[in-house]
Design goal:
The protein is α/β, with parallel strands linked by helices. Helix content is 29%, strand content 24%. The chain has a five-stranded parallel sheet with strand order 6-13-7-8-9. The two termini are 45 Å apart. Bound molecules: nicotinamide-adenine-dinucleotide.
């Protein structure tokens, strides 16, 4: 994503008087660099585990009872282990399209991240996090990207005003964005794949792509774990049921991360892991956040935390909203990225911040302030009174808060009376 952003930024630099020419992409070096970063991070984890005297065994485990495991070591030998408490953190796996798993040239996200070559024509199936992020990378590297999404909009569930900011840019970057469209047939051919698509009007069209990416969601990874030998229960969607202490229906077994429910986000998993560890250590702990931030690392990024406007509407929650368009931000103008939007969803009586949504460059970094505001029970006046540095994009949050009363400095709105009680 970072390299994709650099490529795109180097293209637009021309408008500001700096011409870098066409980038030469050395895939081998790009992959080596990426591998280096990954190795540093995973190696770092190994080091941290050692420093904390964690015994690390590599192999496959399956429960034989609620207190024992059968453990197959990498070399093939089998050990029986017993435990007082276990934490399941097996994550999730990419969902495959019906019949898609065995078709050549159809990648899942892990394969797509090994950029072996840049396909001339790439089909992305699924307009969620992965489809949009990886589609953006390949488009920046030079692929002509067509994206198909089954529902009527990208990123189902995310507020439409935020998605519109991204969609507008993707319409310029991608060859085509086909909404309300599904894949009906896929057939591998010599140098690619023939795909039959069905549009919202029921019309079918056959197209040829060099490669396709299946990004139609992920499912919890529970098979082969021997859960039938324990008291662990799963819900209808296959996620392991846990309570606020991360305890499963089997009191000695805990579960955290993707396998224990949505949202399937690494930072949610880390915090759940802390909760489980604290409970096992005998402390009073519970996983009950007011806001879990979500970030789609596209260009621009979309980030949100807490209550979204669409959720407030569907749950019948009374709310007020204040939007600050980045067209009024000086910092956004210097970046040539006035397309962004910052919005606050607030309680109309107390003006307490219930949700924050941002679409724009750097939204993933900016959202942390929103999380803090929600967790601390901050209201719009608190944010407006907190001096934000100028000229920065963080001011858009302060000005959105001021905008609730019509007092934003850089954006004129008719003045509204504060309703604060
Ligand atoms: P997703 O649920 O975000 O999106 C899947 C999309 O595919 C949906 O829009 C869905 O409507 C569409 N779809 C489903 N079946 C389809 C079909 N047959 N044809 C066309 N479209 C279809 O799933 P994902 O993008 O695969 O990502 C999985 C999960 O991984 C995410 O939900 C997220 O929790 C996590 N993730 C997070 C990040 C991040 O935090 N930046 C990045 C990558 C993945």
């Amino acid at each position: 994503m970072h390299v994709a952003a650099q490529i795109m930024e180097s293209r637009t630099a021309k408008d500001r008087g700096v011409d870098f020419g066409n980038p030469k992409i050395h895939l081998h070096r790009l992959n080596e660099w990426k591998k280096g970063v990954v190795a540093k991070l995973t190696g770092g984890l190994g080091q941290l585990a050692k420093q904390r005297r964690i015994r690390y065994l590599q192999g496959t485990a399956a429960f034989s009872s609620h207190r024992t495991l059968e453990f197959k070591q990498a070399g093939g030998s089998i050990k029986n282990l017993s435990f007082e408490h276990a934490v399941i953190a097996t994550g999730s796996q990419a969902r495959t399209l019906p019949g898609g798993a065995t078709i050549d040239f159809v990648m899942d996200s892990s394969e797509a991240l090994e950029v072996k070559s840049v396909p001339q024509k790439l089909l992305v199936i699924g307009g969620g996090y992965i489809g949009l992020e990886i589609g953006t990378v390949y488009a920046a590297l030079g692929s002509s990207v067509t994206l198909v999404e089954m529902t009527q909009g990208l990123l189902p569930g995310v507020d439409r005003d935020l998605v519109r900011v991204l969609q507008k840019r993707l319409e310029g970057l991608f060859e085509a964005l086909l909404l309300g469209t599904t894949v009906k047939e896929m057939k591998a051919r010599k140098n690619g794949i023939t795909i039959v698509l069905e549009g919202p009007d029921g019309n079918r069209q056959t197209r040829i792509f060099e490669r396709a990416l299946a990004a139609v969601g992920r499912s919890p990874r529970t098979s082969g774990l021997g859960l039938e030998n324990t008291g662990v229960e799963m819900d209808k969607r296959g996620f392991i049921r846990v309570d606020a202490e991360q305890r499963t229906s089997d009191p000695s077994i805990f579960a955290v991360g993707d396998v224990a429910g949505e949202p399937m986000l690494a930072h949610k998993a880390t915090h759940e892991g802390r909760t489980a560890a604290e409970v096992i250590a005998g402390r009073k702990a519970a996983f009950e956040p007011a806001a879990i931030p979500a970030v789609v690392f596209t260009d621009p990024e979309i980030a949100w935390a807490g209550l979204t406007e669409s959720e407030a509407k569907s749950r019948g929650i009374d709310f007020a909203v204040s939007r600050f368009p980045w067209g009024a931000s000086g910092r956004a103008a210097t970046l040539g990225r006035s397309d962004g939007l910052t919005k606050l969803v607030v309680d109309p009586r107390s003006e307490r911040i219930l949700g924050v949504g941002i679409a724009g460059v750097g939204a993933g970094e900016l959202i942390a302030e929103g999380v803090l505001a929600i967790e601390m029970g901050t209201n719009a006046t608190d944010i407006g009174l907190s001096i934000h540095p100028h000229p920065t994009l963080s001011e858009t949050i302060m000005e959105a808060a001021e905008g609730l009363h019509g007092t934003a400095t850089s954006y004129f709105q008719p003045r509204r009376k504060p309703k604060l009680r």
